[in-house]
Description:
alpha+beta, Alkaline Phosphatase, subunit A, Arylsulfatase, C-terminal domain, Jelly Rolls, 10-stranded mixed beta sheet, 6-stranded antiparallel beta sheet, 29 strands
Amino acid sequence: MSVxxxxxxxxxxxxxWWPTPVRPPGGAPNIVVVLLDDMGFADIGPFGSEIETPTLxxxxxxxxxxxxYHTTPLCSPSRASLxxxxxxxxxxxxxxxxxxxxxxxxxxxxxxxxxxxxETLRGAGYATFAVGKWHLTKDATMNDGAARSSWPTQxxxxxFYGILEGLTSLHHPHxxxxxxxxxxxxxxxxxxxxxxxxxxxxxxxxxxLRAHDARKPYFLYLAHLAVHGPLMAKPADIxxxxxxxxxxxxxxxxxxxxxxxAAGLFPEGTALPPRNSEQFLDVTAWDAxxxxxxxxxxxxxxxxxxxxxxxxxxxxxxxAVIEQYGELDDTIVIxxxxxxxxxxxxxxxxxxYFKQFVHNVDLPGxxxxxxxxxxxxxGGPRTMVHYPRGWGMASNTPFRLYKGSTHAGGxxxxxxxxxxxxxxxxxxxxxxxxxxxxLPTLLDLAGVARPETVRGAPAAALDGASFADALDDPAAPxxxxxxxxxxxxxxxxxxxxxxxxxxxxxGRPHEEDPWELYDLRTxxxxxxxxxxxxxxxxxxxxxxxxxxxxENKVFxxxxxxxxxxxxxPPSERSFQEPVTLLAGxxxxxxxxxxxxxxxxxxRVDVRLTQGPGDQGVLVAxxxxxxxxxxxxxxxxxxxxxxxxxxxxxLAGHALPPGAHTVSLLAAALPGYRWDLALELDGxxxxxxxxxxxLLGLAPVEGIDVGIxxxxxxxxxxxxxxxxxxxxxxxxxxxYTPGAPAGYDPREVLAALRAAAESYD
Length: 760
């Protein structure tokens, strides 16, 4: 930096100097990227949906629809690629950020030599805001004692509001973060809904910026938790879609496809593939379902449609504010999804979202994936539901399979780009582009150069290429001629319109997975497999996949051991040591809390001094998806255990005034169960008996002492007392993990893997 000032003996002898503030190029646009979670290709009006999305309809009428845009099959990898421009293994995110196996493609940390999109834009004079879902931080580093090196404000964002991990309740979020700190909230107001809250926060950030600087452009990364499970929506939005899905997923799929063809998204003669029939991914014909299942399944889709509708309403609110400032024409708006629609709800869906994740493990026969619940509760705060995969198939119309797959249903998603000041005419672009292309495209459109060095080292090479030329030239060719894909053994390779793809079956050697070959230029829906007739091309593209895998840190592949999903560094063993939580301690974070109880005996000792009439929660761990709460009510100890949505309550002994130690003892039993008992000052005080263990993602809410914050374990208790803070003198709560359960390690790995695969 050149300094032209001069310091003399006095002010009169001196010449002042000020550094020139960094300003973006003249006319640099605002940039808003709206990213949905698990939304399929056909779920919005501009891509064939019946769901009401007037805001997106208006964006499409003034912008571009990209029908051949691809992403990775899961969320953390897609987000990493979007924000870095690197292939997801090179970025360190081989799959979701919920493991730590110790290999380069699985670091789950953006390396120091990778300048992120917000870092680059901020360096050029932009304000940078992130709102919503992050899921680029390892679960072991989300707690307050861990380094925050991978939190959003350390990766280029000035402000952040949202959650660090993969999912939460939209009615009662379990842990919100503002910038670098946990949001201090005991209970949410009546009618709270996370999609509304995230939009309010984004609007507030823009208003605050404009109050202080009328010209500074901003980058807003708005990553909604919708429409990821558990599916939850507001009653009025659900009511709008009541009865609209009684005809089922087969009819819906055909109707959406007809609209897509009529709108010019696919040429006449494009085939709609048969209903998904692959083993463990198949869909039952709607008309073959019993009437009671059709009624239940339609309710699930009503909630899903309401979630999409709510996102559109909120986007309308956001854009209205931008328009009030007179900046909408000069704002780039991107709307897309991180991967395709989900099949994780299984054949029949569930009203117990977290229980669903362990239903396919070798568990006792009474571990069904669902719980009985009133249909009218579906979508509300008391049920954590997910739809059957038939709706995921319809979501991905006209493509095959789902999120997690490298077939088109997992990776081909809607993409809208609006910039009224720059796009002369609305249109459709069918050129192949990939998620890594978004960063260089936005930098290109903003007139900002990506730095050649970062933190004193050469910047990692980009994998993406700008497609800014598509704004002006409808016939411009793709700037991304080839691309590998890999996710949990599912693999694909794209080159100049040809796609080689395979669906991996767990436990089968990867070299035995059959390759399929499609000519996407004439068969965009991957309906006609040409592999048998073109063995040379299959071999050529398979070899190209191997080369790309070596170059991009894809290896090692999972060989059936479960290691990649379940490995943890030795440093995490400290998470299973006893911990004492004093009164007033903030919530112990989900992953940190789970290590105290998972697959083992454990003991909880509460030291307190009970006064006359004192009552309230002593310790709570979990929410409506599963957990337990120990509390005092009407002078007696009580234990409520929420078994993935089914509640059991034990009324224990009276608790007289005075100093006491109240203990909860959990002994691991065969069949993935705990025996739960209470003690008062070392003497038996009640026994709940055998309950199903909380596995996989449950409990999602962490451990609270002296209160049950945010999402309640026991809904009846919540209705009576709200968060129910303890009124006596609670001194401490000590967790002592006991011996691990003696289960077959292979079964434990299977349970952990089943949960990890769904947690994105």
